[in-house]
Design brief:
The complex is a heterodimer of chains A (125) and B (347).
Chain A lengths: L10 H5 L4 H31 L8 H23 L7 H36 L1
Chain B lengths: L9 H5 L10 H30 L7 H4 L13 H25 L3 H31 L4 E3 L4 E6 L5 E6 L4 E4 L1 H13 L13 H6 L1 H4 L13 E4 L5 E3 L2 E3 L2 E4 H9 L21 H33 L2 H5 L3 H26 L1
Antiparallel strand pairs in B: 1-4, 2-3, 4-5, 5-8, 6-7
Helix pairs in contact in B: 2-10, 2-12, 4-5, 4-12, 5-10, 10-12
Classes of the chains: A mainly alpha (125), B alpha+beta (347).
């Protein structure tokens, strides 16, 4: 078998093209994602404005809702707009896993320390 | 993507001479750069979370701080920031359409969509400039009281509440009085009370010539109303206590308890009217500023590539991969804003 995957003259970039028909399908998908992202943003603003912070749903639940909606938005941007969803598995993992590892640890340790500082502050002030 | 590599065995993929990731060197490096940049922004937002959780004073509420729209009176909580988010998302869409046009080697399409992306970028930068100017100028200013006192005020829904303040607690002025008072303090003059655009930051500066004619001593000025909990909210008896308007005798009492050295209008690197914590203003400046700088460099890069496309550079190369690379950067800028929007403004 002849090797056709060597990096010669940016051959990856040249192979990465599509026809007009394929383009139509891709554009349709992009428009759908656009509508979805816009709707999510509108929902977030309405949640922020109209939910009373002491209503039947607690503010903590609403906060969690914001974070989930944000992660959904982020996932669509990264997987569809940045095309990571259709890249090779290798590439996906080499981007997402190290980032997830570091940032989850950072968030955990940061919030843990922050809460503990707050407790000290209110005890000793 | 790069479908030709899909059928190779593991040994062939990882045996050298080929990219096991199926992408070119340049695109791979753009991804690595974005991962490192994402860690920087993740670090900044986490630091914001640490400070916020570590603070035992109330933290300002996003929809009470950011509720103004250019040229309009009244309260439109978060509308302006939502508009900025929308602009950036749409410019991200036009960018991905430019990438798609590039894959079809459609030069006219690339120029059109990349052009729209650049315009969207300018709109975002302009919005951010207004947002900063509004934040720095403030909407009325505030001061701390120098002793404990109890006053009665009225919330926006008409409900009366009794508030007990301790020395060091914040009281805010209404925007029109605040601006007039600021002018009086700065130059010994007050802006005319009948300023039709008293709410608008720039309009009131523009009337300085008129103001010079009306000499008003700051010490003789008295507000008709003062506001408690303008930017923070308090929970009392399972109720949200926010924006409590104090008028009449109680207003006078608060004004007399004003600690003069604590009067502040808007925000700078040392003082801000929004929160007891100066870190609040500093994080606003640093996080949105650092993001704005990314948007700015993104616009510059987009403009350069737009001219390259116009000159037919990518037709000579035979591919439009550069559009894909700058597209990744531009989407990343949008991605970061989505998180800033949630963690700085909403939560």
């Amino acid at each position: 078998m002849e090797r056709d995957d060597l990096i010669v003259n940016d051959s990856y970039a040249i192979n990465n093209s599509h026809t007009n028909e394929e383009g139509k399908a891709i554009r349709k998908k992009l428009y759908n994602v656009t509508v979805l992202l816009t709707v999510i943003t509108i929902i977030e603003v309405f949640m922020g404005v109209f939910f009373k912070r002491n209503g039947t749903i607690t503010w903590e639940t609403i906060k969690l809702g914001f974070i989930v909606l944000t992660l959904v938005k982020a996932a669509y941007i990264v997987l569809i707009f940045m095309h990571l969803g259709d890249e090779k598995k290798n590439l996906k993992y080499v981007i997402l896993l190290p980032y997830a590892l570091f940032i989850l640890y950072l968030i955990f340790i940061g919030l843990y320390e922050g809460v503990s500082v707050q407790e000290l502050n209110s005890t000793w002030r | 993507m790069a479908g030709h590599t899909q059928n190779l065995t593991k040994d062939e993929l990882w045996g050298g001479n080929a990219s096991p990731f199926g992408v070119s060197y340049g695109k791979m490096m753009m991804w690595y750069f974005l991962v490192s940049d994402a860690l920087t922004f993740g670090g900044l937002l986490t630091a914001y979370g640490v400070i916020r959780h570590g603070s035992s004073d109330p933290w300002p509420v996003g929809e009470q701080v950011f509720e103004a729209l250019p040229m309009l009176h009244g309260s439109y909580p978060l509308m302006y920031v939502a508009l900025m988010t929308f602009i950036l998302i749409i410019s991200s869409v036009t960018m991905v359409l430019a990438v798609e046009a590039g894959h079809r080697r459609d030069k006219a399409g690339v120029i059109k969509w990349l052009g729209y992306t650049i315009i969207g970028g300018f709109f975002f930068l302009g919005s951010q400039a207004w947002e900063w100017s509004h934040f720095i100028h403030g909407s009325g200013g505030g001061f701390q009281v120098n002793k404990s006192l109890t006053v009665t005020g009225e919330m926006e829904n008409g409900e009366k509440v009794q508030m007990t303040l301790n020395g060091g607690d914040w009281v805010h002025m209404e925007s029109e009085f605040g601006h007039a008072y600021e002018h009086a303090l700065e130059g010994g003059h007050a802006a005319p009370a009948a300023d039709a655009h008293g709410h608008d930051a720039h309009a009131s500066h523009g009337t300085e010539a008129v103001a010079a004619e009306t000499h008003v001593d700051a010490a003789s000025m008295h507000p008709e109303a003062l506001i408690l909990n303008k930017y923070v909210l308090e929970r009392k008896d399972d109720k949200d206590i926010r924006k409590v308007k104090v008028i009449g005798e109680d207003c006078k009492k608060l004004w007399e308890a004003k600690a003069n050295e604590t009067v502040v209008f808007g925000a700078n690197m040392h003082k801000n009217e929004y929160a007891v914590q100066q870190q609040y203003a500093n994080f606003f400046f640093f996080v949105t500023g650092f993001h704005g700088f990314h948007v700015f460099s993104g616009v510059v890069i987009n403009i350069i590539v737009w001219f390259m496309a116009l000159g037919g550079e990518f037709d000579r190369r035979g591919h439009y991969e550069t559009i894909e690379k700058i597209g990744l950067y531009w989407h990343f800028v949008d991605l970061v804003w989505v998180f800033v929007f949630t963690f700085f403004y909403l939560v």
